[in-house]
Prior knowledge:
Blueprint: E1 2-9, H1 16-28, E2 33-41, H2 47-52, E3 58-62, H3 68-77, E4 83-86, H4 98-102, E5 110-115, H5 125-139, E6 151-154, H6 155-160, H7 171-181, E7 186-191, H8 204-221, H9 224-249, H10 256-285
Parallel strand pairs: 1-2, 1-4, 2-3, 5-7
Antiparallel strand pairs: 4-6, 5-6
Helix pairs in contact: 5-8, 7-8, 9-10
Amino acid sequence: MKFSIVIPAYNEEKAIEDTLKELKDYLSNKKYQTEIIVVNDGSKDQTKKILEKIEGIKLINHPYNKGYGASIKSGVKNAQYDWILLYDGDGQHQPQYIEKLIKHNKNYDMVIGARVGYQGPLSRQPGKKLLTLVANYLVQQKIPDLNSGFRLIKKDSFLKFLHILPNGFSISTTITLAFFKEGLNIKYIPIRINKRKGQSTVGLKDGFEALMTVLRTITLFSPLRIFLPISFFLFCLSLLVSIVQSVYLKEFNISDTTILFFVSSLFLFFFGLLADQISAVRRERR
C-alpha cells in the first residue's frame, strides 16, 4: 500500500511534534510505502520552527494563513502517491486506525473515520447535529460523520472536485457531499479521538460557512432537493390563504397575497427544473 499523509497545521506548536513522532513510530513498524506532507498554514507561533527541525517529512509553508481547505489542497497537489490520508496535526487522531482505513481501499473511493464517543467540544454538538440532519435530507443518505478530518481518499477523485472545494474548514463537508452525489463508494469506520492539544481555531463563523457549503454543494449537484420543497410550501400557503380569506369573507376570493404566493411557487419550481438541467449538463461536460 502506497499513500501520502497530508497534515495541515496552523498554530499547532503544542501538538505537532508529538503527533508526528507518534505517527512515525507507528509507520516504522509497518511495510507501507508512505510520505508525510505537513502544510504549515502561515502559523504565527513556533510551529514553523518546530517543523523545520523534524526529519523525514515534506514541509510546505504558506506565506500567510489561507485556511484548512487550502492547506489540504496544497498537500494533495504535492503528493506523489495515488492515495491520500488526511490526518490532523492537533493530536486528536490515533495512528492505529490507519490500518483499518487502508484495508478497504480496493472497494471504495473514500474511507472515513467516523468519530464515536468523544467528538469534540460539547458546545459544537448542536450545530453539528443540525448540519448533519440537513445534509442527510439533501443527499438522501445517513451520514455517520459529515466533517471528520481523518479519511483516506483517491487522489484523482479528490482532484476531480478541486474546483468546488473551499479553502476553509468546510472542505471536509464539501468533499463528503460531492462523493455521495456523484455515486462514488464511501466507507465509514468507527474511530475514537483524543482531546485536541492547544486552542481550536474553529468558531461560529465556520459553522455558518459549513451550512452555506451544504446548500451550495447540493444546489450544484441536485437543485430540486432545495427548490422543490420551497415551491411546494409556497403553493400550499397560497391555497391556505385563499381558503382562510374565502371563509372570512364568506365568498370565494383570490387576493393579491394568494397570487403572489402562487406565482412565486411556480417561479421557484421552474427555476429549480432549469437549475437541475444546467447542473446535469455541467457535470457531463466535466
